[in-house]
Amino acid sequence: MYSPVSYVHHLLRAHLVPGDAAIDATVGNGNDTLVLAGLVGPSGTVVGFDVQQVALDVAAAKLAKAGLTATLHRCGHESMLDVIPRAMHGNVRAVTFNLGYLPGSDHAITTMASTTVAAINAARQLLAPDGLITVVCYRHDEGQRELDAVRASFASIPPPQGLCMETRCINRDGSAPVIFAFAAAEEPLDILRR
Q1: What is the pLDDT of residue 159?
Q2: CA separation (Å) from 71 to 14, 49, 155?
Q3: Pairing mode, if any, of strands 178-183 and 163-168?
Q4: Residues 6+ apart with CB under 8 A from 178
Q5: For 121-169, what is each residue's pLDDT tens digit?
C-alpha cells in the first residue's frame, strides 16, 4: 500500500547510493533505519537517534536479521550535531524524520516542536551540498504544533540555500500526515525529480 512513509522511501531510494552517509533522526520501529542501511550498504554509514531504548532494541534486531548495520544513539535528535563525528559534517546525503510517537507504546512520549526544529537546523548543518531532508508530520495534538513549526522553519530558509516541497493527501480527511522534502543543492529540483 502506498503511504506517506513509502513516498519518503521512494525519495530516499532515488537519492542515496552505496557508500553514502545517512541519518535516521527518529528510529522508532526501525523501518526507516533498515531502508537507509540497505541503500548505503556496507560501505556507507547510518546513524540513528531515539530517546526510547525499546525503539533502539527493535531496530537493532531488524538490522541484525537483515545483515545490515547502523550506529544507534539513545538521545534526542536535537543532539545530532554534537554526536555525529566531525568527519561526517557536510557529508550527510540524507536525514529522515518520521515524527510522533512509537507505534504501540506510550503516546505521551512523542517528538516535540521545539526539539524537532532544533534537529532540522542541526541536520541542515550536517548535509552534503546535494543533501536531502525528509520529514513526515502527523496531526495529533503535539503533532499539529510540530507540523506548524516545521512548516515555518522550512518556509524561513532563503531560496538560494535550497528548496522545500510540502506534500499532503488531498483525498483524505484533515488528519492525514504531511511530508516535507528539503533539497540543499545549487539545482535542488534535480534531487526532487529523480
Answers
A1: 85
A2: 23, 9, 31
A3: antiparallel
A4: 4, 136, 137, 139, 147, 151, 166, 167, 168
A5: 999 999 999 999 999 988 777 778 888 999 999 999 998 889 999 988 7
Q: What span, in angstroms and rounded, lies between the C-alpha atoms of 134 and 127?
A: 12
Q: Is 153 left (phi over 0), alpha (psi -120 to 50) or beta?
A: alpha
Flag whether pLDDT at 4 surpasses 90. no
Whether the per-residue pLDDT at 44 is higher than 70: the answer is yes
Task: Give the full edge-to-edge strand order of the sheet including 178-183.
Answer: 71-74, 45-50, 21-24, 92-98, 127-137, 178-183, 163-168
Other beta carbons within 10 angstroms of residue 11's beta carbon come to 21
What are the structural domains, with CATH classification, of the chain? 4-193 (3.40.50.150)
Residue type present at position 74: R
Reply yes or no on whether the pLDDT at 114 is more than 60: yes
From the number of C-beta atoms within 10 Å of its C-beta (0-12, 13-18, 19+), residue 55 rates as: buried
